[in-house]
Each structure stands twice: as structure tokens, then as C-alpha cells.
Amino acid sequence: MIRDEIKKLIEKSIKKLQKERVLLKFNISEIEVKHPEEKAHGDYATNIALRIGKDAKKEAMEIAELLSSELKSQDGSKLFEKVETAKPGFINFFLSKSVFEDELNKILTQGDNYGSSNVGHGKTVIVEYSSPNIAKPFSIGHLRSTIIGQAIYNLYKFLGYKVVGINHLGDWGTQFGKLIYAIEAWGDKEKIAKDPIKELTKLYVRFHEESESKPELEEEGRKWFKKLEEGNKEVRATWKKSVEWSLKEFNRIYELLGVKIDLVLGESFYQPMLKDVIKEALDNKIAIKSRGAIIISFPKDILPPLMIQKSDGTTLYSTRDLATIKYRREKFRPFKIIYEVGADQTLYFKQLFLASELLGFGRKEDYFHVAHGLMRLSGGRMRTRKGDIILLEDVLKEAIERAGRIAEDKNQGLNKNEKEEIAKAIGIGAVKYNDLSYHYSTDIVFDWDKVLNLKGNSGPYLQYAYVRGRSVLRKSGLKKNFKAGELKEKEEIQVLKLLSQFPEVIERSAKDYSPSLLCNFLFELAQSFNTFYESLPILEAETDELKKARLSLVEGICQIIKNGLNILGISTPEKM
Ligand code: ARG
Question: CA angle at residue 362 from 313 to 366, to 5 degrees?
Fold first, then answer.
């Protein structure tokens, strides 16, 4: 990518100056090359002279001058139209237009692969996401995890990593003791099989209501979970059924979302490994017994202790997570494990990662918690069934319904099948984009007007830009595979330059676990495209040459929008 080429040139120039003893030796760890805020400062700029100056106690401006004249004499300097220095020591690069034209040609020839790379070759990344809890409705929080997690998964895959997606189902724990008690005591299996999540949730709620006046029920719940952990056959069978019931429902949602997670490995999967992990922690003196329970306490109490076994001998969420880490490290030898889980578990994940480090399961930097914020409703206009639990399926269905109305308004010539498909693409795309366009840590308010806003930063806005571009290409009647040509107008140049940033944006988004960076970029691109589209004729361009050049630009734009939306898990319909 262009940025890396500039970095290489800077590095070469520095090395040469050092060899000639014009510059002293110093460590060039990471050369920063950025896009300046102001266009007048060039396409790229670096602060390296300031950093060298600070190290060498030399005037930064002087170093900037030295470096920039060296840069101009380098082989690759034809990249630059000009190189300028600016106070207090910046070097600004103005790139030749041909660089961007070459990049456009690359987009056109590499197509769907443009922006991908193999930087991740030979490295495995585990992305754990979605992870809903059995016998409970799939909530909007799990929606966030599913959507953001899938986008992060796709980003890493695009960069050549081996990626393993894991759905860490919440299918174990004391709550199952309560649930199983409730099923045994009050459940009607036929009714449950018909509408499992609803019936199971009802039973679970009833358990909590009744246990208020009958506290002994809590004890019953614990007893049943103990039976489950000890492998009681009948209890296991009931548990297994509820997992199946729930998965059936969850799979319907994944299908609607077009999400496929490589592996479904719930908490229960690790049950046989729990004893060993606890023993290992005790043997290594990482865990201690405390009032009958077993806890891991941290050096200098930097974090509160983490309990890994209750006093009744049963295990916890944390025990299963430690076993999970151990298993994943042995099985996949991951370079990184990424957890897409709500921010309410921030402290927990800090404890978990540090405990893992203490246990010798890698360093805590090998783990990352993508802690997503809350999603709330605006004005309560979303239909909800019970209290604050928003049923995700309702949201998705409503999105498709609303999108269908938009498609109808925009395009009355669609047949029924087309309409349904487009409504699904727009509706699901809109919900996904809304989630992805904010930084994951942001608390967001779900607002239908914003989600489906055709004029703002939304999924449909991007899809519509794509549709517009594609329709111009179709109308041109020309075959694909244009070649970049002579473009001069500022509206053209702006969008041409933006296109070449796509690979950088992909890399940054993955590094920061932030699909929102990709969203912002795509939005800016679509806006620039619309400005270009509205101010300059494409099919009616003055010359045939110019028309082809503009068409090549449109094709490049469509390709980048498509590649970007693909990574975000959003489809690009041809019509809408
Ligand atoms: N099932 C959990 C929940 O809904 C999320 C699981 C997160 N992953 C983990 N390894 N702890 O809260």
C-alpha cells in the first residue's frame, strides 16, 4: 500500500544519512505517516524529523530539510509530485496523480481481493462472539456481539490470518439447576417443544418469583446443578434437550443475519477439564482455599479475587473460561484471542486475563476484550414483549418490513421476489451498519429514523450509492474492465485519492478491533462519490476518453464499497 512505500523510502533515506554520518544512529522503531487534516499539507505527512530531533537534540527543521532532499533523490521518488517541509519539523508529501491512477487500476484488476493481504500468514486468531445463553431470549446485547464479532472475524480473514470463530454458548451453570428444577416441577414438555424459549423463560421467571417466598428453592437449584455437574443421566438428558431447543431458535436468527460461526463450543464442553484446571491453580499456588471456596487472588490486590470453585464444590463461569483458554491454546496455538462481549464484563475479563497469565497461559496481551457498550431504545418505539427484553427477532423482522416500504417507494417496478430480497438486504444491512458505525465502546440509542436514513451515515445510504454507481455502469452499455484515465476535476481527484486508502483502513480497523473505522471511511467515500456524481456528467461527458475515465472511477468506487460492505457482512443489491 502507498503508505508503506513512503515509509520504506523514509527508512532508506534515514539509513543513508546515517551511513554518511550526517545523522547519528538512533532507533527508527515505527515511522508514522499520516493523512494531514488539511489538504494544503499534502496527501501524507510524517513527524519523523521531530522525533529524531528530540532524540539527537538537534533542530527538527534542519533534519526535515536534510531528509526531504534525500527523499527527493531516492529511486522511488517518482511517487512524489513534491516534498515540502513545514514548521516545526514536518515533512509533507504531495503524491503524483499517476500513483492514484495506478491504484485504481489495481482495484479494477484485483476486484474482490483488493485490500486483502497476507500479513497474517501463519498466525491464528480466535474470535469469540455471539455467545448467547441457553433458555433465554437472544437479546440485543448478543446482537451487538454477533455483528461486531463477525466483522472483526472478516477483517482478520481478509488480512490472511487463520481465523477461528467460536460461539461460547452459555449452556452451563447454576441457572441450569434452577431451570431443570422448574422443568421437572412445573414444565409441560409438549408446550416447551412448541415454543421453547418462551416456555423456558416463563419457567425461569416463575422460579425466581416463587423463590422469593420460598427461599429453599435456591437450595433446590443448587442441588440440581450439582446433579448435573456430577453427570446424573436424567438431569443431563433434560439439559441436553433445552440446549437443542434453544439452538434451533438461535440458528433461525443466525440465518436471518447471514452469520455462520465456525464452532459452537458451549461452556459445558469444558466441563471435563475443570477439575484439572482447579488442581493446576492450587498446585502452582496461584489459587488458595478461602472459607471452603477456591479463589485466585492477585499480586498487591490490583484486582479483586476471582472465585473458581464455590464452597459446595461446583464450578463457575470463570472456571470454565480458564479451562477454555487452556484448551484453545493447546488446540489452536493462537496468536491472539479476541472476546466480543459486553462492557459490563470488563472487570471480569481483566481478572480472567491476568489469572491466565499467572497460570502460565501466555501473556495478558495475548487476549483482548472488545467491550461493546449498551444499546437502548429511543422513545420506546420498538416493539417489546416483556419489560426491557427486546426480542432480536422482532427487531430484525421490523427492519425488513420497514425496508420493504422504502424499496417500494423508490422502485415500483420490482417483482415480489426481488422486493423481498431487497427488503431483507436493506433491513438487515441497516441494523448491522447501525451497530458497526459507532465505536464498539459507545452506548448507542437505536432509532429507526437514523438506522434507515437514506441521507445520513447508514447502511441504506451506502447501498444506495452502490446501486447508483452500478446503474450508471449498466447504462453505459460498455463491458467491464475499464482502465483509469485522465481525471482532472477536484471532485474526481478527491474520490480517486480516497479509494487508495482502503487497504490502510482495513489494516487499521483490524488492529484497533474497530469496524467503525471502515464504516466511517465508506461513508466518506460514498459522500465524495455523490458529490462527484451530482456535479459532473459521466455518461454525457465531453469526450469519449473522459467518459471512460469517469466510468473507471465509478467502477472502482463500486468495487470498494462492495469489498467494504462484504467485510461488514452487509450485502450489496443491484437495485433498490
Ligand atoms: N454467555 C455470556 C453472556 O451472555 C457471554 C460469554 C462471553 N464469553 C466468555 N468467554 N466468557 O453474558
Answer: 110
With the most atoms of ligand 1 within 8 angstroms of its CB, the residue from 172, 341, 372 to mutate is 341
Tell me the pLDDT tens digit for each residue of 40-72: 999 999 999 998 888 777 789 999 999 999 999
Q: Is 131 in the pocket of ligand 1 (CB under 6 A)?
A: yes
Over 80: is that where the pLDDT of 412 sits?
A: no
CA 29 to chain centre: 28
The residues near 29 (Cβ < 8 Å, ≥ 6 apart) are: none
The protein residue with its alpha carbon nearest to ligand 1, atom 1, reads 170
Q: Is there a domain that residue 36 lies in?
A: yes
The 8-class DSSP code of residue 501 comes to T
pLDDT of 516 > 90? The answer is yes
Omega cis (within 30) before 334: no
Range(s) of the domain holding residue 54: 2-95
Ligand 1 site-directed mutation target among 126, 168, 169, most atoms within 8 Å of CB? 168
Residue nearest (by alpha carbon) to ligand 1 atom 11: 321
341 lines ligand 1 (CB under 6 A): yes
**Is the CB of 321 within 6 Å of ligand 1?**
yes
Those residues whose C-beta lies under 8 Å from the C-beta of residue 35, and which sit 6 or more positions away, are 43, 44, 45, 501
**What is the pLDDT confidence band of residue 379, given thresholds at 50, 70 and 90?**
low
Q: How many domains does the chain have?
A: 1
Q: How far is the CA of 129 from the centre of ligand 1 (A)?
A: 8
b or e along 413-452 (b: 16 or more beta carbons within 10 Å of the residue's beta carbon)? ebeeebbeebbbbbbbbbbbbbbbbbbbeeebebbbebbb
Q: What is the pLDDT of residues 173-191, one digit of tens each?
A: 888 999 999 999 999 988 9
| 170 close to ligand 1 (CB < 6 Angstrom) | yes
Residue 109 in any domain: the answer is no
Say which residues have a Cβ less than 8 Å from residue 126's Cβ, sequence separation at least 6: 163, 164, 165, 166, 328, 332, 334, 336, 337, 338
- CATH number at 17 reads 3.30.1360.70
Grid cell for residue 58: 538537534
Q: In what order do the strands lie in the sheet with 306-309?
A: 287-290, 293-296, 306-309
Domain presence at residue 14? yes
Query: Residue 68: what are its φ and ψ, rounded to 5°?
Result: -70, -35
Evaluate if pTM is beyond 0.85.
yes
Q: Residue 74 falls within a domain, yes or no?
A: yes
Backbone angles phi, psi at 465, to 5 degrees: -60, -40
